[in-house]
Design a protein that fits this description.
alpha+beta; Rossmann fold; 5-stranded antiparallel sheet; 14 helices; 22 strands; about 20% strand; globular
Amino acid sequence: MSLTANPEQAFTDKVRAFFRDLKIPGNSRIIIAYSGGPDSTALLYSLHSIKHEFLFDLCCAYLNHGLRSESELDRETATLKKVTAALRVELLIGNIPPGFLEAEARKRKRSLEDVARRKRYTFLAGLLKQRKGDYIALGHNADDQAETLIMRFFQGSGPPGLRGIKAIRGTIIRPLLSCSRSEILVYLAARKAVFIHDSSNTDMRFLRNRIRHRLIPLIKEVFPGFGRALSSFRVKNDYADEFIQKQAAEYLVWKRTENGFCIPEEAFFHSPPIIRLYSLYNRIDEIGKKNSDHDKARIPFRFLQPLLKTAGPGTQKTKLCGFGLIVYIKDQMLFLERDVVVPVKKDYVIEVKPDNEYIIETKEEYYRFVVTTDAKKERDFSLTAEKINQPLILRTRRPGDCIDFGWGHKKLKKLFNERKIPPADRDFIPLLVDEMGVVVIIGTPFGVNNFFRIGVAMKDNLDKNVLHCLIQRVER
């Protein structure tokens, strides 16, 4: 921004250029994510100042995450209502009960920041659909872009993540992405705009705040011009990602299967590892779109890494199971599929559906496993359905597995040692697990008790919301 320019006009020109450069049509209905902080306040004022030029229909949306004190929220809401009323812009408010996000983070085993972000986007997407809007406008700025790149770099992202925040992605637009935080404050001062200092912006529970307040000051001290360097870094990754995506689409052509995709084994392993990785993630994304309960964003690199080794076709027989996916080779084809049964010795992952029958192999014997909601059917044990975070998975033991007995978590290895279960038997003992971990250790096939996570065992079969489980030895 020129020092001689009118700061208010210069800032508005940047926002105006955003809509012209990206050819976002006039007459658009835009929902502004408005928190009352400096970024969203600058977004509101700047869009309001050009609304007649572009014929925008604007409204604001605010979500109370239930993370701060009631008095602070009351003051914040009053300010938001006052500002939007003065600008004659509608304000839509959503509320999350106090403590809900913390409980959700523990339940999902995710960061509070991640859970809050997901709820916020869900809230905004719901309003967009309800109001038949075209875009959701967010107040991310150039400083946020830098923080995101630093965060993703240290989290091990590849070129897709290191492209940074996109100015437009589907219905999400970010008109302030070329504006620095200092430019935003200068603009607000020129407008004499009222904004709020959100106490959560200094809450060190959030990773972004730790990066902003602790890491970036150190980086500035060592690399004063890091902002320009990061911008160049982002553009280079943009080019790299675009090229690799194109090559991955040309090199590897997958065929659809009932549960996912398959490709000739030879073609897959003859392609460069980076092409394989991109192609795998693209197919996983498609599986995730088809199956809404599949969390495509959480497939770590280490899970797919065995498929990137240089072993040639015919030698790479690694079967990967986890994260709702399975990768295996059959008849010279590599399969990437979701939640399929692969009945192999000592290793299986099965998504359990009510009233379906599953055959599993434990040591030299076969067992039939059935889950039903019919209380009249035979069963070995019953589970409280509401205590289970679906999907329910039947699988074998993995390193680090533990079970919550209420007074604490106990590793299965230690439990098996205490019960004197022979090491040769331990990998065959079936487990029922959900997103929170082990639900039941099914010990009856090996002459030991079943072990239940606290709160899941159901003794009163009069309750209708119950899963009844049966495991029987069968001849095969």
